[in-house]
Specification:
Layout lengths: L3 H13 L2 H68 L6 E6 L5 E4 L15 E6 L4 E10 L5 E7 L1 H51 L14 H34 L1 H17 L3 H32 L8 E4 H18 L3 E5 L5 E4 L1 H18 L5 E9 L10 E7 L7 H6 L19 H11 L3 E6 L4 E8 L6
Parallel strand pairs: 7-9
Antiparallel strand pairs: 1-2, 1-5, 3-4, 4-5, 6-8, 9-10, 10-12, 11-12
Helix pairs in contact: 2-3, 5-6, 6-10, 7-8, 8-10
Length: 474
């Protein structure tokens, strides 16, 4: 037996650490405590009310008796006392008037209770009438002529009611306690079911099954909201993991080529270069290849920092029109050199909140793509408008920036993958670039709470950025 006691204690201690059991115990204790408080108030309000009414009745009766004694004397008190006894329909009034020596004068009590020694004090005592002995609540008074008056009320009905009410409340408390225990058990079972569902899902995910999700039953709004939130978190985690896998594969594939090319160039120069000029040319080409690798790594690092929200500290109010015009002015020369035409429709101003330099970089990336893929004499169109508040924007107006070129465009499949890191459409395989431009734009737009969308322009590609604008009061 001694060996089993510690095991039982530790087992009980372990069960008490269960969140479900603690929640059920707290629920049961709160339910029982509330019921006990309510039933106590009912008992006090019922039994106590009757007792207080009895005390007020005796006090008022005694006041009348004392006033009568002052006005009419001894005979007036005896007459009033007998009158009160005749009018006592309920037969619960108790009166006793005795001389200073204790001799009976009037009343329906046979003798003065020995326990009553002081005036003005409430007593609950057994009293004898003609043929009955019951519990009564009484109070003694001394009359002006020295007689002693005892006034009380028979409390047998009150006692019976008190016992009945107490018994009823005890049974009610027992039933409420059983309901509290049952409710706590059901609550614990529901909580354990929810936790078990989450545990099974997370355990399956830790074992590599990223497709597992919490069930949404549609019967409990709060639980379904938790399930939706966790499922969205799991979906985002799965997308991030897929993105990591994709980036790893893309890095291994796309960075291997320039590294291999640089190594081949250096080996070729080491083996075949006959002059210093040839060796210098090979080294310069290798440096350019390595610079390209550095730019790719810097872009990847910048995208990771943006997606992590590390740049929100630089957010500040700025005029989007001024920022956009600066980028247009920077690219006007390159557009003219390529024989292209730029058309833009812009409002006078548009207050915005965010990182101005970051947004300018996103627009510059879109200009680079539009210039790179537009044929000669094509037109690049820029449109900036404001959309009215919608329910999905929580009262915020929305800025819509559209950049359209007249290049070859993209297929629907390519547009769905265009924002993936290192993705390049088939027609862009032989053009300079790393496939990170739209990925960076996507990260910047999402950091600002906006959306990036692509669609066919017939001809060309239409890139649209929508971003919520700050409220006028902000």
């Amino acid at each position: 037996m001694k060996l089993n006691l510690p095991l039982s204690f530790h087992h009980l201690k372990g069960r008490l650490r269960s969140v479900g059991l603690q929640f059920a115990l707290a629920y049961g204790a709160l339910f029982i405590g509330s019921a006990l408080l309510f039933l106590s108030f009912v008992w006090w309000g019922t039994v106590g009310l009757i007792e207080r009414q009895t005390e007020r009745s005796i006090t008022a009766d005694a006041k009348v008796m004392l006033q009568t004694a002052k006005i009419k004397g001894h005979s007036g008190v005896v007459g009033l006392l007998n009158e009160r006894l005749e009018q006592d329909v309920d037969d619960n009034a108790l009166y006793l008037l005795v001389s200073p020596e204790g001799q009976w004068i009037a009343g329906n009590l046979l003798e003065w209770p020995q326990i009553i020694r002081k005036d003005g004090v409430w007593y609950s005592v057994p009293v004898k009438r003609v043929d009955l002995e019951n519990m009564a609540k009484v109070k003694a008074f001394t009359m002006p002529d020295g007689d002693r008056l005892l006034i009380g009320r028979d409390m047998s009905g009150h006692t019976l009611l008190s016992h009945m009410l107490t018994e009823m409340l005890l049974w009610t408390f027992l039933m409420v306690s059983l309901l509290a225990i049952g409710g706590g058990w059901l609550t614990r079972r529901m909580l354990r079911r929810i936790i078990a569902s989450i545990s099974r899902t997370t355990q399956a995910i830790t074992q590599g099954d990223m497709s597992r999700r919490l069930p949404v039953q549609g019967r409990d709004k709060e639980i379904d909201e938790v399930a939706h939130t966790i499922n969205e978190m799991l979906d985002r985690t799965a997308r991030l993991m897929d993105g990591v896998k994709q980036v790893s594969n893309s890095i291994a594939h796309d960075l291997r080529t320039p590294i291999t090319r640089a190594r081949t160039q250096l080996e070729d120069a080491s083996a075949n270069a006959e002059t210093a000029e040839e060796l210098r040319t090979a080294i310069d080409q290798t440096v350019r290849n390595l610079d390209h690798l550095t730019d790719v790594c810097a872009a990847l690092l910048r995208i990771a920092q943006i997606e992590a929200g590390a740049r929100r500290s630089a957010f500040a109010p700025f005029d989007f029109i001024i920022a956009l015009r600066d980028v247009i002015e920077l690219y006007e020369v390159a557009i003219e050199d390529q024989g292209l035409k730029l058309v833009h429709t812009l409002p006078e101003s548009m207050p915005c909140f965010g990182d101005r330099a970051m947004y300018q970089q996103a627009i510059a990336n879109l200009f680079d793509n539009a210039i790179k893929f537009s044929p000669p004499h094509a037109t690049i169109t820029i449109t900036l408008t404001t959309l009215p508040p919608r329910p999905t924007t929580n009262g915020h107006a929305t800025m819509r920036l559209t950049i359209q070129d007249e290049g070859p465009g993209m297929s629907q499949e390519d547009m769905e993958r265009a924002t993936e890191r290192f993705f390049r459409a088939e027609h862009a395989r032989h053009t300079p670039g790393s496939g990170l431009g739209l990925s960076l734009v996507q990260a910047i737009v999402q950091l600002h709470g906006g959306t990036l969308s692509l669609k066919a322009g017939n001809p060309g590609l239409v890139v649209t950025i929508e971003n919520p604008l700050p409220l006028k009061s902000e």
